[in-house]
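Reviewers asked in the last cycle whether our approach scales beyond single polypeptides. To address this, we selected a multi-component target totalling 878 residues and predicted its structure end to end. The input consisted of the following lines:
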Amino acid sequence: MTAAHQAYLLQARQMQALSFAVHIPLVCFGIAFPAMVLFAESLYLRTGDVLYRTLARRWTRIMAALFAVGVITGTILSFEMGLLWPQFTSTFGSVFGLGFAIEGFSFFMEAIFIGIYVYGWDRLSPRAHFLSGVPIVISGMTGSLMVIAVNAWMNHPTGFTLVGGQATDVHPLKALFDNSFLWPELTHMYIAGYIVAGFLVAGAYAIGRLRGKWGRYERTALAIPLTIAALASPVQVLVGDWAARDVAAQQPIKLAALEGLARTTKGAPEHLLGWYSGEKVEYGVEIPKLLSLLAYHDPNATVAGLDTVPTDRQPPVNVVRIAFQAMVGIGTLLALLGVWLLAVRIRRKRLPESPWFYRAVALAGPAALVALIAGWVTTEVGRQPWVVYRVMLTSQAVTGAGGIVVGYATLALVYLGVACATAWILRRLARAPMDEHEDEPPPLSPATATAP
Amino acid sequence: MHLYEIPLIFVLVGLALYVVLGGADFGAGFWQLLAGRGRMGERIRDHAHEAMAPVWEANHVWLIFVLTVTWTAYPGAFAAIASTLSIPLFVAAVGIIMRGASYALRAGAATAGERRRVDLAFALSSVLTPFALGTVVGAIAARRVPVGNAAGHLFSSWLNPTAIMVGVLAVAMSAYLAAVFMAGDARRVHAAGGCDDDLVAALRARALAAGAISGAVAVAGLVVLHGNAHFLYARLLEGGALAAVTVSALAGLATLELVRRSRFELARYGAALAVAAVIAGWALAQRPLLLEGLTVQQAAAPHDTLVLVVVAVLGGAAILFPSLALLFRLVLAGRLDHGPGDGDAARPLAATASVLAASRAGLLGRAAAACLLTGFGFLTVAEAGWAHAIGIVALLAFLPCGFLAVAPAQLADLEREQRAGGAGER
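The resulting structure, written as structure tokens, was:
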């Protein structure tokens, strides 16, 4: 590695992290929002109640706006594969690239049917319109499968042999899909999409309720995403635990960094909070033997420490550890919030009435977003200094082209503008009056006769 | 034809489709920039937006297709191109961000002033992006991209006469394609009574002007190549490349005549043929080299990867093209237009309010609880891989079961019954 490479490396990593942090919340909406919109539309088709149609139409506009922003931020990520990491793509494109090529088709289907769905309201027959939304949900699923397959491969590379810096004996299918890392990571991300989108959408209506906007429309608009998020967040705790056990088995150094475990330890304790000093976790709450129990289902299991690799092969422990603890802490609180809703639903057969519940829901959206990004920091920074775990260093992957800092600054400014613009458009769409033409019941609709 | 060339053909087909479809999209922005202020200006800008809004995302994905297939099948060449040409690619990326954001923003722009500002950002980026992408193609054609990590010159690789000429040509052709497409679309809207005839006439005039300018740029381009990239010039004017260039020139002339006769639909296919022929000519002139000192064969990924790329693209195409055909059929038939519905308006399938029976909800609730317990047992407690598979399926089944058992719509209504007559009722 030349000195120039080293100078660019941190900028390139930060630029990649920025691009990723901007894109990933939009991915959550791409995964989960179409399903919510379709559910609202299906309620309308089943009951004929115009309220559900209004809801689905208003959500459609938000979905369309967020999808447009997701398209462009996702495109930037694919540009960066070459702009920032040409050596990574050059060496391993033949191994992982297929995943993105297939993802491209998913993206195609998503873009085609979102065009039909968004502009097809009132134009297609109700059944055709509803069906045109189904491919959006499916391609959201296949798209995340492909992208996560590539990321899982970076964390657990298989399906090739490296000879003289060249990938030979390449088996892309084995690399992408015959990978124990894929399934926990995919499930974890897919469910996270529903949690983040669910709590963010519900949070908007929770704030409305705290301000006194609480008609049947708002209650329905809150109940659909909130139910999804409330069911998904307890499940996420179990899936996260599964993913962590897989990390313990495949990436012991990442686990050691997550837990700040300096030395290989038999019956390793778990530390909550605190700070890793380079030797041990200071000021943390120690729970004896818990780490061994969680990671290997055995309180006396031996857990590998950071000392099993040289210092320059260790990830930045505090970044990874704090991100991990933030994700786990927030995830647990979100699961409790979900259980709160479910408990009230089962016992009282209604929505909770405490304003504290709605305050918590309003906070849950942003908190879920923080947990999402913290989770990606955990897995991506936790993999450092490797871009392909134990095969290629991130410093070997970076571009030799100068001026990354200029690109980074430009992109940061542009994304700031995009963020402001997106916030503006969402506020504008939320304020759009309820009784526009589109929200009127269509002429001769049976709903007009049955509406109260 | 060798296996290692097939993905390249896919890339070139994708590129041609991107130039034709995405190009029309960029060109729409170009005409927004030149639309002027008055009433006609506003109508052109609105029409440019409405003609493209349902399809731009799908058109844009061709670029993603080109990128992903290239980096999978020719990873070394992709890395060399992206690192040496990082500046024009980054400029194109910023342009793409601004364009996409403009589409999102225009949906919320309420006044003509707001729309004009959004359109300006859209229009500027619509010129910038095809120009930058054109210089990338030009730089590759001019053999300014050596193999390696940023091995070429960061500026002169794409700021040279050949690359700039291709960039300008890309903008001119985009404008031409867009004008033809928009004129055809305006005539369709006009036939449906949605606009008057002078919009069609204005767009037709623009199409003729842009077509003539594109042709002039293409001819001037040959002169530039003669001086700046003589090897390419020589190869373009021999063998299969010459045939392709000739086809392109003839198709271009025929298209102009078709536009003059207001045969916009046929003209679009003619223009597409002209573009595809240029790209084919370029590919034939460059064969067998992909980059300077790198043949297609040397650049190609290992055999297994190539086979899988071909299978994936063919399989993907089998799903993609029917879907694209559906989208374009709906757009061209005006089924996705703005404005009030046409009587085929959405009507619910069933009018009776169906409330989940209590017993069914209870059953679903118990099923959900069983799934959750099964999932916990097999995923969290058990160790074996097969047990995890059962566990995760059970947990994923818990989500829809639980959702239906909770019945959020009913939940929102239950509250209404309990607080009957509550404030804020719609």
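Residues 436-452 of chain A have pLDDT under 50 and may be disordered. We regard this as preliminary and will revisit it once experimental data from Aim 1 are available.
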